[in-house]
Amino acid sequence: MPPPLPCPGLPFPLRRREFLSLGLRGLAGLSLPALYRLRSVAATEPAPQTEPTAVILVWLIGGVSHLETWDPKPSSGSEYRGPYDPIATRLPGVHFSELLPRQAALADRFSILRSLVHTGFCHQQGAQQLLTGHPVRELRNKPDDPDLFSIAHLLRSDPSRSLPNYVGVNPVPYIGSAYLGPAWEPFSVTGDPNDPKFEVPNLALRDPEMVRRLEGRIDLRRDFDRLRRIRDRAGTMDALDAYEAQAWNVLTSQQTKQAFDLSDEDDLTRDRYGRNQWGQQCLLARRLVEAGVELVTTTLNGPLCGRVQNWDDHAVNHNVFEIMKLRAPLFDQAVAALVEDLFSRGLDRRVLLIVTGEFGRTPKISYAASTGEGRGSASAGTMQPGRDHWPSATSLMFCGGGIPPGQVIGATDSRGEQVIERRVGVHDFLATVYRHLGIDAGRISFQNHSGRPIPILPEGRPIPELTPPGRGHA
Question: Quick check: 86 and 95 in contact, CB under 8 A?
Fold first, then answer.
């Protein structure tokens, strides 16, 4: 662990507003202890809620078809309708695709929004519009503005904790902390949690010699710091010791290691989620929020998705109907188990689960020659059906967070092309999530690289139907 970098000119103590006005520039390269010190400055105002809330985002990268999941259109005609029938759910008159029987049986535990609309027609644009709220129309692999998780990570950080506060279990691509600096990116966990050899690096150091050397470096630095501490009127050095201690805890804490250790789960639970990468990713997400992590994202992609390893079901990539038939049971099982556990383990009020991709798929079926054989795709040159990008109608699942369950919010037309009821924009979506996290997004802004103040949410109001009882609609 390198020594902490100085932060010259930073007045301590600071109010949150004073800290944000600095623009948070120059955070790149901060050591872990220095990062915790800055986090404490951003969190001097107590959060309004008495119980810590959390968010899990299950991200279906590439854009899942709303028609083959939560918004089937059986009467749309042969140019639009796929081969799968709608099935009844636990909600009278509400149907899902037959590909999601487990979720259909739990439909009274969550709510579906069928009417989110934005203008991001490519994956980068879609992810960045939905998760930053800014109208990005260019193709950028990283956003110019920070996403909601990076912002929440900064505003909700607590230097007393040993667990990372923002974890990406296979992190969401195309988003990031932008001008806030890389310090506010997620603690990244990659690999397959279903692999018996899976482990998270840099947790619970096992080498006694490495622990001894690190302890020696910290003791040596403290000897030098004693002279500086005499002149430290604001108590900065004493505070820094606390942040060094937290960094040490992240590296050595058995609590941290245990939160990531799926072997603590019994076989029946692991089987219920599915003994595959997606099932175990969702199980790990549940373990993390249960242990106290407040922000968890997990991306369902890779070989289970098919030949191109995502949900981007153009005809050149996949036969959309064949690959959905293969991947849907795994997705259905993992998400259903996560929904069940939120309620059975008493997490349903403080943890908000969101399941979505960056957009829906074109209701009208397209056809093209396959570019290569593989799971869900015919041999190269074979004509096969697909669905393309469609940000004009996106479906999302919301579960937990104290929101009223058993709702279907909004509607699309008979083909699933356009929203005809309860149109919702990205700012409303973000306002809903920020409210759950206790962040008054309308009153906070940052300065970007040019010094311009950028509000984290220039407009939008929480979705009224997703308002927990007693919270009001403001």
Answer: yes
